[in-house]
């Protein structure tokens, strides 16, 4: 075999790891339907790399309690129908910005209990991502990642768990303005360098805030009281922040007009995104209906034509047959005469 051909084959093997990978050597995860979704259960199976031989149309992958260090975009592009990915308690330290890009249907991503230092900003741009768990990654700068992800166009993120992500030093509280759908936020066990009412103004859909064991500094003593009042007025389920001594001045302190504006913008954006989601659903539904009508229409036309052809063919055939029959009969008659 010429050397060039060998090179080509080598190159192909590098480009198509899924195809070239020998699946006989990979541990087999149990695959079944769970709640109607095609699920591969690879829980606690000592995987050191992302499995490459699961069914391509898999919708749920459970990979918690393994020893995976690295995940590449090529690994995930084998499974583009993925909706829920659980990677709790692995050894992931670093992820590339594009690792999860292309997972259009990903709704749940659980990266809790890993060693991540940074969350790829592009995670916040995944169009279907609803639930993101980042708990117990010791020192993530989540504020920076969200900042880098801006502008965030269409977001679905409603549940975010960033509990216990500040082990060595206090972290910055993220700016959630561009993620207005967030309804559940877990910040428990964190130390924040400082908290102010503006941090909560952009959380206009917040319903549950788990802030147990949170420590924070406040720029202004009244800020803590304003935050407690603001969250209480909005019926958020939370633990009252332990505030510095109450001073009489704080009882009349209100939210800054600038923060009120942020809240209004958030509400507006929330409405737009909700409408966009409804529109998308309606469009998909309409598209489906139109497709069915189109297929039915094509079917009718096709079968209609065939039927016509058959009914037209019938007399021609019989005519020819009749003529042929006549010939044969004539011949027979001729012979016998
Ligand atoms: C990460 O990817 C997003 C697009 O998905 C892009 O907007 C952003 O600038 C990238 N960030 C970095 C640090 O490359
Ligand atoms: C928030 O996170 C902590 C620690 O990870 C956990 O114990 C707690 O149950 C979470 N809160 C909620 C409401 O899920
Ligand atoms: C808060 O901290 C205490 C003591 O460190 C611990 O027992 C408790 O489980 C923590 N609560 C949460 C929700 O993390």
Describe the structure.
This protein folds into two domains: 26-268, Leucine-rich repeat, LRR (right-handed beta-alpha superhelix) (Alpha-Beta Horseshoe); 274-312. Helix content is 37%, strand content 12%. It contains seven helices and eleven strands. Strand 1 (30-34) and strand 2 (37-41) form a beta hairpin. The longest helix has 80 residues, at 257-336. The chain is flat.
Biggest pleated sheet: 9 strands, mixed
What string gives the helices and strands in order?
HHEEEHEEEHEEEHEEHH
What is the terminal separation in angstroms?
78 Å
Structural class: alpha/beta
Q: Which regions have little confidence, pLDDT < 50, spanning 5+ residues?
A: none
Strand content: 5-15%
The CATH class of the largest domain is Alpha Beta
The CATH H-level homologous superfamily of the largest domain: Ribonuclease Inhibitor
Mean pLDDT, all residues: 87
Q: What kind of oligomer do you see?
A: single chain
- Please estimate the helix content: 25-40%
Rg calc: 32 Å
**Cross-sheet strand order for the largest sheet:** 1-2-3-4-5-6-7-8-10
Number of helices: 7
Shape: flat
What is this structure's SSE topology?
Elements lengths: L2 H13 L1 H4 L9 E5 L2 E5 L18 E3 L10 H4 L7 E3 L21 E3 L20 E3 L8 H8 L9 E3 L22 E3 L4 E5 L2 H4 L6 E3 L4 E4 L2 H13 L23 H80 L1
Any descriptors?
337 residues, single chain, 7 helices, 37% helix, binds 2-acetamido-2-deoxy-beta-D-glucopyranose, Leucine-rich repeat, LRR (right-handed beta-alpha superhelix), alpha/beta, 2 domains, two-stranded parallel ribbon, 9-stranded mixed sheet
